[in-house]
């Protein structure tokens, strides 16, 4: 029998239903519904990877190596495949005999497998030190962010903002939406001329420069990425803001020159880890003056029935954000409160992140050859897959993103916030406009 029908039968045995895609194998054979998205298994090596690393990591290695691919648009294939996995009834799993038979069939399809294929070079190779130690966190950040500023310019566009934008309407350009987000943060923090802002995980400096240029703040931006810090410093000089903004290669645990009037942490807390989150919250609390505000912008996952069963996604851990962890927003709020903060506002931006990611994917796909030249074919494939899959996860509500505004309570109890009105809301659209 040709390879594709055998692969389709194997998938059905493992998932309990026929594959919702057309499978095209290395021998030219096809199996599956005509007109469905096409998944190409280009080489038996893809199956060998699954033999040695069953599950998502084996599939990820095959994808990064180019042995597994999708014909045409990526979203339709990801949508039907992920939908099948997400909607699978609880408790439905192949029996032991079925798994054994599947393993034998996979071995027969994969061919001779004396040793496992080496993982693609884009995979994290070695991590040293305890989880979320200073040394290990620096290694993790370097793996993700020190892949070339030119590559990030291509993906992110001129704003160089690597976090969820805020859209007035779904038709806003990415630049407009990112400018909305930067200004929204500054207004939530109520920044004023001469105030000190600490930007934790400052990236390429966009928020820090906006706060200094538009609000007259004096800003310290910290990052663990040397490439980001150098890029941000160059931007500050070009804009004539080097006397107002300082960029450091520094961990939040090493920052000790408070008090600050405000702290922003945008897309950074996902790297902190559950075990360190109380320490993170306490450190930021100690760096704020009384009455100072914290804006914590963080991706969240849905809570689980058994939180102890949470595991970091193997593909994300190996190729994208090593050691990154997501927590339910309720846990984040609780830990901020335990550190002494008064949480005053929480805004979900879930749909906004889906729109942001789709624009990043479009940027990458439109300049694909240049992206490959700037990094590697495997690296470009990693970014395309993780951003497209993340967009679908936000759209389906499997993950979200939230801005939490918190205050270090002063002795008087006066928070300095408006009584009711969210006067920091951006103009130019309504929630109804965005949903449309």
Automatic annotation (TrEMBL):
Pfam family, one: CMAS
Region (Disordered): 416-436
Database matches in SUPFAM superfamilies: S-adenosyl-L-methionine-dependent methyltransferases (SSF53335)
GO molecular function, one term: methyltransferase activity
Superkingdom: Bacteria
Entry's EC annotation: 2.1.1.-
InterPro entries: CFA/CMAS, CMAS, SAM-dependent_MTases_sf
GO BP, sorted A to Z: methylation
Keyword set, alphabetical order: Lipid metabolism, Methyltransferase, S-adenosyl-L-methionine, Transferase
CDD domains assigned to the protein according to its UniProt record, in alphabetical order: AdoMet_MTases
Biased composition (Basic and acidic residues): 420-436
Similarity comment: family membership: Belongs to the CFA/CMAS family.
PANTHER family: CYCLOPROPANE-FATTY-ACYL-PHOSPHOLIPID SYNTHASE (PTHR43667)
Name this protein carries in UniProt: Cyclopropane-fatty-acyl-phospholipid synthase family protein
């Amino acid at each position: 029998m040709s390879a594709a029908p055998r692969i389709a039968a194997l998938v059905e045995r493992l998932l309990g239903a026929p594959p919702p895609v057309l499978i095209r194998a290395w021998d030219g054979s096809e199996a599956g519904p005509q007109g469905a998205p096409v998944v190409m298994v280009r080489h038996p090596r893809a199956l060998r990877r699954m033999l040695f690393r069953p599950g998502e990591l084996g599939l990820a290695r095959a994808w990064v190596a180019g042995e597994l691919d999708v014909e045409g648009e990526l979203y339709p294939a990801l949508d039907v495949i992920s939908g099948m996995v997400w909607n699978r009834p609880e408790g439905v799993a192949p029996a032991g005999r079925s798994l054994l038979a599947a393993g034998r069939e996979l071995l027969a399809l994969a061919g001779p497998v004396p040793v496992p294929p080496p993982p693609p070079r884009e995979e994290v190779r070695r991590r040293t030190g305890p989880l979320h130690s200073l040394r290990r966190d620096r290694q993790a950040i370097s793996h993700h962010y020190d892949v070339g500023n030119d590559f990030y310019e291509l993906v992110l566009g001129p704003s160089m903002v690597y976090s969820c934008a805020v859209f007035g309407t779904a038709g806003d350009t990415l630049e407009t939406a990112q400018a909305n987000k930067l200004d929204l943060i500054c207004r939530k923090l109520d920044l004023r001329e001469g105030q000190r802002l600490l930007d934790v995980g400052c990236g390429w400096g966009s928020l820090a420069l906006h706060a200094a240029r538009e609000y007259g703040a004096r800003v310290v931006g910290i990052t663990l990425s040397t490439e980001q810090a150098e890029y941000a410093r160059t931007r500050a000089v070009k804009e004539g803001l080097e006397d107002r903004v300082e960029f450091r290669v520094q961990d939040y645990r090493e920052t000790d020159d408070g008090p600050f009037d405000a702290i922003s942490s945008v897309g950074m807390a996902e790297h902190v880890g559950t075990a360190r989150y109380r320490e993170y919250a306490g450190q930021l609390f100690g760096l704020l003056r009384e009455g100072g505000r914290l804006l914590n912008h963080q991706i969240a996952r849905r809570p689980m029935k058994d939180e102890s069963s949470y595991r970091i996604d193997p593909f994300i851990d190996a190729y994208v954000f090593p050691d990154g962890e997501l927590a339910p927003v309720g846990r984040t709020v609780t830990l901020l409160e335990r550190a002494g903060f008064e949480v005053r506002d929480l805004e979900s931006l879930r749909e906004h992140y889906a729109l942001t990611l789709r624009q990043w994917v479009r940027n990458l796909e439109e300049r694909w050859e240049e992206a490959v030249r700037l990094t590697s074919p495997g690296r470009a494939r990693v970014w395309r897959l993780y951003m497209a899959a993340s967009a679908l996860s936000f759209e389906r509500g499997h993950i979200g993103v939230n801005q939490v505004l918190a205050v270090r309570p002063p002795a008087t109890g006066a928070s300095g916030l408006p009584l009711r009105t969210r006067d920091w809301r951006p103009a130019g659209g309504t929630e109804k406009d965005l949903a449309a």
